[in-house]
Amino acid sequence: MVFGPETTQSDFFEGTMKEIVKAYINGANGLVFTYGVTNAGKTYTIQGSPKDGGILPRSLDMIFHHIRGRQYLKMNLKPYLSNDVKKLDVTQVKQEEIIKAAVLASLKEDIEDTSKSTIQSASLCSLESVSSSSCTSTSLPSDPLVEDSVLLDADGTKHQRMQSSVWVSFCEIYNEYVYDLMDVLTVSKNQKRKVLRICEDQGGNSYIKDLKWINVQSTEEACKILKIGNKNRSLACTRMNQHSSRSHSIFSIRLLRLSDVAEPRILGVSEMSLCDLAGSERCNKTQAFGDRLKEAGNINNSLFILGKCIAALKQKQNPTVKHSYIPFRESKLTRLFQPFFCGKGKACMIVNVNQCASTHSEMLHVMKFSATAKQVIQTIHPQTFGYFAPKLVGKDGKPIIHFNANISAEEFPDEDIDSSSEEEVDITIMTHEELLKTTENLKETLVAERQSKLLLEVQIRKEMAEAMFQQLLETEETWSKRLEDMRESYEEKLENKFEMYKEAIKKHAYMCAMEQVEDHYVPIEEFVAEQEKVEDRDRKILDLQQKFGEQSDGLLALGIPNSDMLTAEDKVKSDLEYKEMQRTTEVLRRQCDEKDELIKSLKFKIQKLNETFQEVNEVCRKTTEENNRLTHMVMLKEQEMRDLQNWAKRVLELEATVSLLQEELDESKKHLYSEDLKEQKPKRGLFANLKSTVAGTSKTPVGKTMGKSEDSPTISRKQATFARKVKE
């Protein structure tokens, strides 16, 4: 059914929730949840506005209008687990009253802060006025269902008055954690909220452990509870929605139907849950980051799992397709929805549409999801005895009585009659001889089965041992090959490194020698030129000496004193010697400089060689360590081989022991068979002995009785010996 934007809250309630609430009042369970993108009006659909209440206030008003004048005002019967009722004592009733007063008092203490809260400014600023004006104005007209307060029993002939008790709870699923929105401690911002767990009862039904259930006597009290929960709910501002719900909230209403007698009896428990799902969103449009981004991820993930569950339910309806796993347990939300999806209640989905063009792609996905959900045909299982039935428990949690509204106590079968009939059947179904034959056959079958199972166990153990031994051999062979390959690889790498370093050292030494040769090498052309220069200098010296001799002779002839001539000759010689010494000194100085440069270069090369030698030593050390490690691994593998060989020997010994036990078993069986053949007369049974005892006859031979008593210990001893050998 499609509702346009002009639809009022009253028309929407009449078209969707009215039939669900009627079925809920009659004892059926119901689930209503809203689905859509962010800012699509889901919270408004459920809660409405101060002047026009949503489906939740209207449902509460319809429920209390139905039970008006027939309310059970005591709090000694409280919902327990998923579908049971707990009977409270006086102390527990007072505690419930204190909890209710504390929850309602928290609303009065923070009434000023509530006006500043975002959720009240957006949806419900004064739900009390809704309950007093809007809810009363939208009260449904009386119909036969509401006016009828008589409940028919299973036969449809007996009538009894009925009372009702209403209990509500309000929780949220925030970041895949369940929190109680009626927890008074959540009012303080400094205190951390308590995380609740989802558990299952004996019937596999999910429920929230330690969730507060508050007894409400009117719509006003229920609206106050809703207002308190909205104050504690997780809200935040995003780009798409100023008051965006960051969690899935679930408001549950349980209706206890009681018999109107002095000691009320539980006639039934029904539950209706209204879930306000958080809207799906895209982070690039909402500009979410930090906590908002984490919340959006958890919201989208839970909605995605909900879609997977609905798609799996649709696929399950097709008998030609292989049924797939329904992932109810992958999310807290789907885990709570599981009973309703599996036929233990009616589920209804309300899809809210956001007409904004920017959410076109998201709305397309929502419409596809709703089309898939529409094709799911829900099968509501009939409530038979023992199925989803309420159970009354005491203050210690133990059941007091377990019954159904449609079956009275007189209709339960008598256990004594059943047990006596069963005993009578056991006696008369077979004769004494047939029972003895059956017992003997069963004994033989048991022995044969034990023997076959023992042989099968030995065979399986042998096969497993052989397979494990073969696997260990293959593993050892594989590792041995790998170790050998690694050893060869490392040795090859080490040899290559040694050869490389040897070549490098040889090349370096050759280069040093060549440099030294080049430093002292003189080309032959230069040598010849220098020789020619020396010869020219010698010739010049000879010429000068000849000229000097001629001049000396001339001077002697002229009468120059000999002393002056000697002085001039000495000066020339000293000048020549001085020049020669200067040249020699210059040559020696040049050679010294060259030698110093050569020494420096040799020292630098020696330093480089030392560094290279250290690197080679480090590589050798690492190679040695690797070789040691590989040697240790080889030793460990050899130890494993020895263990495997010992194991194989043990297996052979066990096989020999089994063969010996088999032979002894065959001999024992033959011996037992031969003893059975020796017995001539059949054994007297238990009933024959009892009959002879009652009749007072003493015809039983003493010898045969003694013979039987003597044979039975022998057989029991042989069986005990055989069992002891089998155990060994």
UniProtKB/TrEMBL annotation:
Keyword annotations from UniProtKB, A to Z: ATP-binding, Coiled coil, Cytoplasm, Cytoskeleton, Microtubule, Motor protein, Nucleotide-binding, Phosphoprotein
Pfam family, one: Kinesin
Cited PROSITE patterns: KINESIN_MOTOR_1, KINESIN_MOTOR_2
Location of the Kinesin motor domain: 1-376
Alphabetical list of InterPro entries matching this protein: KIF11-like, Kinesin_motor_CS, Kinesin_motor_dom, Kinesin_motor_dom_sf, P-loop_NTPase
Gene Ontology CC annotations of this record: mitotic spindle; nucleus; spindle microtubule
Binding-site positions, ATP: 36-43
Polar residues bias: start-end ranges: 690-700
Cell compartments where the protein resides: Cytoplasm, Cytoskeleton, Spindle
Protein name from the UniProt record: Kinesin-like protein
Keyword ATP-binding in record: yes
Gene Ontology biological process terms from the UniProt entry: microtubule-based movement; mitotic spindle assembly; spindle elongation
Region (Disordered) residue spans: 688-728
Keyword presence, GTP-binding: no
Membership in a protein family: Belongs to the TRAFAC class myosin-kinesin ATPase superfamily. Kinesin family.
Coiled-coil parts of chain: 480-507, 592-671
GO molecular function, one term: plus-end-directed microtubule motor activity
